[in-house]
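Q: Start with the shorter request: fold the first protein.
A: Done. Sequence, then structure:
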Amino acid sequence: MLSWIMGNLATILISAVLVLAVCLIIVKMVKDRKQGKSSCGCDCGSCGACCHGKKEI
């Protein structure tokens, strides 16, 4: 078991860093969402939601 871990140490470390980065991004997105911030850069608190409604043809 130890030899397998040592043989794959680089892959394990890189995977751990990537998982950590994804988790931090998700936490930041949830935190921003709770504060009313949007990923588009606009303030959804003052948005009239005209761009989110049904489009008329």
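Q: Next, the second protein, separately.
A: Sequence, then structure:
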Amino acid sequence: MSLLERLDLPSDAHADTPLVVAKRWVQTTIRVTQAHAHKPGQLFGASRGLLSVGTQTGLWVVPAIHAVWIPPDHMHSVRSHGPFEGWGAYVAPHACASLPAQPCMLRVTGLLREAVARAAGWTHDELKPHEVRLAQVIVDEIATAPRAHFDLPMPRDARALRIARELAAHPDDERTLQAWAQWGAMSTRTLTRKFVEETGYGFGAWRQRARVMRAVERLAAGEPVTTVALDLGYGNVSAFIAMFKRTLGVTPGRFFEGDEGGAPALGDGL
């Protein structure tokens, strides 16, 4: 039985259940993983390329130097935007008590990245004492990694959620707040209140957030800035670039020019 298979066992079913199992992936085609859940917690990200991650509570666009934490038994789906190099650290359920209880995006520290890279090279069935210590370092780094804010929280109300999913799929839709409320069989006031209470964003701000995330996905796939801007409903490229820089702190052309081949750190503005 492999180390990863043993992580799926109940914590008391195997005395030598590993604390952490790390993996690396290199894929030249688009990767699509349908919604699923597993017993271990999982931290995963891309060292090259861009990932979109969906959970029951929100959506993330994950540039390099960031990663998404998925606690045990949480449903999630993953899609890459073009070829990518990725990595993941699976954490035994009994070791997840000190880790975030809800899915979230984390800023990956240099120590965490290097520790996972070292652990991904373990090929034997039993961890040696120094490997157990390194596995604990990985758990500690996940626990203390700073949060990053590049998510699209989803409302819980069924009617508002239906509207949010439609807008996330078609962020260029120009229908007004009133038109969306009518489409969702709810009042404008209720729709506005649900978005603020359940996502933390007003309806207009949430829609802009959805557009920025879609823009990042399309830019990562190599589409020209002009095409993306016009397709997302901006009257001119300058307005789109100004909005992008106001939200993320950099222009679209510089977004993927961060340290170590990744994107720059993302602030709380989005």
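Q: Describe the second briefly.
A: The CA atoms of residues 52 and 61 lie 5 Å apart. The chain has nine helices and eleven strands.
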